[in-house]
Structure formats: C-alpha cells, structure tokens
Amino acid sequence: MPLFRRRPLLRAAAVGGGAYMAGKRHAESQAQDATQDQAPAAAAEPPSGGISASAVDRLEQLGKLHEQGVLTDEEFAQEKQKVLAG
Question: pTM for this one?
C-alpha cells in the first residue's frame, strides 16, 4: 500500500507544504519585481530643495571667471542670482 493512502494526514501536510512554498516564491518574485519597478522612478526624480547639477556647474564657471577678473563683483552677483532663481 502506498504511503499516502495509509496516512491521509501526511498527504494533506505534503500538499499544503508544497502550496505554501509555491505561494511564498510567488510573493517573493512579486516583491522583487515591485522594487525593480520603483528603482528607476526614484532615480529619475530631481532632488527636492536643492539646486540642479547644471546650476552648480554654471556657478563654478562664474566663480572661475570672477576669480580671473573677467567678471566684476556686480556682474558676478547678477549672474549668480539668475542661476539661483531659475
């Protein structure tokens, strides 16, 4: 006589255990897919409350021009305000 036929409780435990493992793997794969979907969206969002990388680059250029004497203090201040405002 087969083992599962003699022991119905053992058969139920085996079927239930298999279903549990299949469900657990399915939930893990869905969670992994969800985190992969969120990662690019989070990277695409600009940082809030800060200035952009292009604005920082522009301010560095203006600072170098000011140090070299190409821009006066007034011109530097005006250009700096434009970059920070926009």
Answer: 0.43
